[in-house]
Specification:
By secondary structure, the protein is of the alpha/beta class. The chain has eight helices and twelve strands. The model has no long low-confidence stretch (mean pLDDT 95). GO terms for molecular function: ATP binding; ATP hydrolysis activity.
């Protein structure tokens, strides 16, 4: 579904991403993990066609991005960025409707309104519909932008992909888990998602595979049980940890310290 080979990225003579091969198959939820400065967000932006460097090639649904129709592509892929505009003088409903802009020119259809209502339900933002966006808390704004990208991909296309850069920032425990459950539901329908995360235990619980980065290099790319080992995590994060098994989910459980 998404293939990238020998991806590198340099900025100001600094090597941010160093020759990474990557593949995401249909229906996979892949976590991108690593310490600060590992290159997680940069790599995600390259895969999402936001950062470009000569020689890099990313294939999405058997086509390079440059071969896609620019009006059609947003109906197949969407990206949530960690740095969203915090000053938007619109009501919440209208901000979420921005995700439907690829579908209409002047006035939204009933399908567009239904997509917004669906995404609001999935992000617990229904009660905020008529609130001014600028009056919301940080966590509420985060959920509004998550709803926006969900609304963007609410269509009948198959094999869609979501790129999510630290989507759990500012969210409480309830909304973190509910959103990841939605993403799991999204991928269970044959779509795919790439998520930059900092919480290793949530990655262990929800992802199918983990790409672990350190200083722009791929450390490993495998199932959570093979990536989240005491030796690998202690080395990559330069901090001691203990590995056990979550007694409820049976996933790996990492305890630092």
């Amino acid at each position: 579904m998404l293939q990238a080979k020998d991806i590198s990225y340099n900025k100001n003579a600094f090597n941010i991403i160093d020759a990474i091969d990557f593949e995401c198959n249909q229906g996979e939820l892949i976590g991108i993990l690593g310490p600060n400065g590992a290159g997680k967000s940069s790599f995600l932006s390259i895969l999402a066609n936001e950062f470009h460097q000569k020689g890099n090639q990313v294939i999405f649904k058997n086509n390079e991005y440059k071969k896609w129709d620019s009006k059609e592509l947003p109906k197949h892929k969407a990206k949530f960025s960690q740095n969203n505009n915090s000053d938007i003088p619109l009501k919440v409903f209208d901000v979420i409707m921005m995700g439907r802009y690829p579908y209409f020119d002047n006035n939204p259809s009933q399908d567009d309104e239904d997509a917004v209502l669906y995404s609001m339900k999935k992000t617990d933002t229904e009660s905020l519909s008529n609130f001014e966006y600028n009056h919301l808390s940080g966590g509420e704004k985060q959920r509004v932008h998550l709803a926006r990208v969900i609304a963007q991909l609410e269509n009948r296309n198959s094999n869609k992909i979501l790129f999510l850069d630290e989507p759990l920032n500012n969210l409480d425990v309830l909304h973190q888990h509910n959103f990841l459950k939605y993403i799991k539901e999204f991928t269970n329908r044959g779509n795919s998602a790439l998520v930059v995360l900092h919480d290793l235990n949530l990655a262990a619980q929800f992802t199918d595979k983990i790409l672990l980065l350190k200083k722009g290099k791929k450390v490993c790319f495998d199932s959570p049980i093979n990536v989240l080992t005491q030796e690998i995590i202690s080395d990559v994060y330069n901090y001691p940890c203990t590995l056990t098994t979550n007694p409820i989910t049976n996933h790996p459980l990492i305890i630092f310290g």
